[in-house]
Each structure stands twice: as structure tokens, then as C-alpha cells.
Amino acid sequence: MKLKLSIFFLFLSFKLVAQHNFVLNGVCSKNTVSKNIYLTYNVNGKSITKSSQIHNNKFVFKGEIDFPVKAIICTDARFYMTNLNSKVFYLEPCIMNAKLDFDDLSTIVINGSKTNDEFNVLQNTTEKKKNRKKNDSIRELSRLYSAKMIETNDKSLKIKFQESLDSLDHQLDQLVDQSIKKNKQLDFEFIKKNPNSFVAPDLLDYILEEENNQIPYETIENLYNKLGSEVKKSYGGKQLAEKLNYFKNSRIGSLASDFKGSDVNADFLQLSSFRNNKYVLLDFWASWCGPCREDFPFLKEMYSKYKDKGFEIISVTKDEKLDLWRATIQKENIEKWKHFSIKENKSTIEDTYVVTAIPTKILIDKDGNIIGRWIGSSAENIEAIENMITEIFDN
């Protein structure tokens, strides 16, 4: 009896472990000799990359995951992705089968994953396919006109080809803008109709990141609250919950999250130390970011004008090369205000303030509340910042 129970529990343990395994069996439709194919995915913030050698036109990937997870299969070991050498899909803790052309992964067919089937349906709606077709046709025309312009020596023809290229670029920009809006609408509809799909939190996460606080927090929170319990437990669900918390605490009207560390001069710097004393403009930038540096003349003007009235700037750099960061501060002559390195301080401030693009500027009042947030470098943003700071200090 004890032996039977031991065998039973051993079998049960094996079954439970097996439930967390995935197997992706692949078959190449063409003869592929001695080549490798690669897979990457993320589990709880940890990136996992695997390789598999193709033997007799077959390959296999195995691993452990508790929930469906977005993955990329690619023929380039560096994951320099193109439409032909890579494909985004969903891994699931089950046995899946893939059939592909090694030279064109855009045609890959993957069976066995319910989540990947849902993802494919979303990606291949009539509207999205129509937009991709228009996009491809415009790009093909652009390629043809570019080739013709290079081939001809006739200046008048070159001018006409350039005009055509400019027109096509304009059409493509309009199409991209329209596609983004329509795709977002389709994604929202999918999330509402499929709260138990593991694709849903990834879509919400993408919307949250791309919109940079443009969509009301309540809208995203409401959709998250309606997700199924298992979906919320998934890797994507937990990541979304964490980002939502950051999003809530980084929007206009929220109390600015405190941070501390050493500044560029190795002096102690803490955001909360300015509370009840100064207005603070957080400026997220990097030395390699041209638009960020274009804003420095304006920032220097504002700082010179209002530093004695209670205005401070803390520039937060994304630079990995700290010597270059320090050299740029000197070159741009911006040593007068505070400088904070994310790398040097091993800081998570980017996540805390949901900074997904630079430059990003955040204005904090004397009470420590966020009163302004601007993404990107533009005349409109500079005008808005100047108007707000001027109204604070000149009235």
C-alpha cells in the first residue's frame, strides 16, 4: 500500500511539474542544414534566451513557464529583428508545433496554444490586414521611386521623383497615425471582450507605456480590475499591476515619489529635501539625446531667471557612460543645477515616474505635488513650461 501511495504521489508530482513545461516542436518546410534558431521570452522580469540546432529540418525548444508568455522566435542570434527573420507569438505551458520557412518567418504557423490563437485573431483582423497592405504598397512605391532617382541623371526627373517620395512619406505618416488610433480601439475592444485572455494585460501594458499618461488612469484601472484572476496572477498581469501603481503615483495631482542618492559632485541629493522650499523641475535626458540637449538653452534661461525665487532643476540622466555624462554637463555649461545618474545610483526612478521616452520633464510644486508633465522636445512643450513657471514666479 505504501509503495502504491509513493508511486501515486511521485506520478502526481511529475504531473504537476509537467503542467509548467512547454515544448515547441518545429519543422522547416525547406531543407535547412546545420543552422540554429533562437527563442527569447521574459519571466518575472528575467529575460530567457534559448537556441536550438536544426537537424533533419527539425528543432525543439523546452522550458518551464507557469503562464502563457509573449515570446520571439528568430534566426538571428543577436535578435536584430526584421519581418523575415523573426516572429512574435505566445508560448504556453503545453506542447506546441511550429511549421516555418527558415528564410521567411512571417509565414510561420504555430498550433497548440490557445493564447497564441487569440493573439493571431487580433493581429489579423480585416482592418489591420487592410492597413498593413496599404502600408506595404506605399513602402514599395517609395522603394521604386528611390531606385529611379538614383538611376537617372536628369535633374528635372530627380526633382519629380523627390516630390513623389515626399508625398508618399506624408501619406505613410497619415496612415501610421490612423492605424495607431484604429489598432488601439481594436485592442480596447479585445480586452473588454476577452478579460480571461493572457494577451489582455500585455495590450494594456503597451497602451499604458505608449500613451504616457494621456489616457485617464481610471480607464486603465477599470479594465485591469475586470481581468480574470488567473490573468492577474500571470507574469504580464503582475507587471501591469506594478506599472499601474507607478502610473497612479506619477500623474499630475499625485504626490511626487521621493528618491535619493549622490549627485554628480558626490553630494547627497534627496527630492523631499526641497519640499516647502522650492519648485523642482525633473529633466530626464541623456548625452546622446539630441532633442534633450536642444532644450538646455531654454532651461538655462529659466534657471538663471528664477533660481533665486525658489526654482530648482534636477537633471536625471539615462547615460551608461558616466564619463561622457560628466563631459556633456561641462560642455553644455549646465553645472549650476543638480545632476543625478540612474546608473550610478542604481535607481528605479524611470519606473517610478513611468518615463518611457526622453526628454521627459516633470514639474513639482513646493508641497511636493506633480503639477506638470511634458514628453518630448517641442516648441509647444517649451511654451507650456515657460507659461507655467512664469505664472508661478511673476505673479
UniProtKB/TrEMBL annotation:
GO cellular component, one term: cell envelope
A Pfam entry, by short name: Thioredoxin_8
Keyword set includes Signal: yes
Record GO biological process: cytochrome complex assembly
Chief place of localization: other
Coiled-coil residue windows: none
Signal sequence coordinates: 1-18
Gene Ontology MF terms in the entry: isomerase activity
Keyword Nucleus: no
Record domain Thioredoxin: where: 250-394
Location of the protein in the cell: Cell envelope
Keyword line: Cytochrome c-type biogenesis, Disulfide bond, Isomerase, Redox-active center, Signal
PANTHER family: THIOL:DISULFIDE INTERCHANGE PROTEIN DSBE
Entry protein name: Thiol-disulfide isomerase or thioredoxin
Organism expressing this protein natively: Flavobacterium granuli
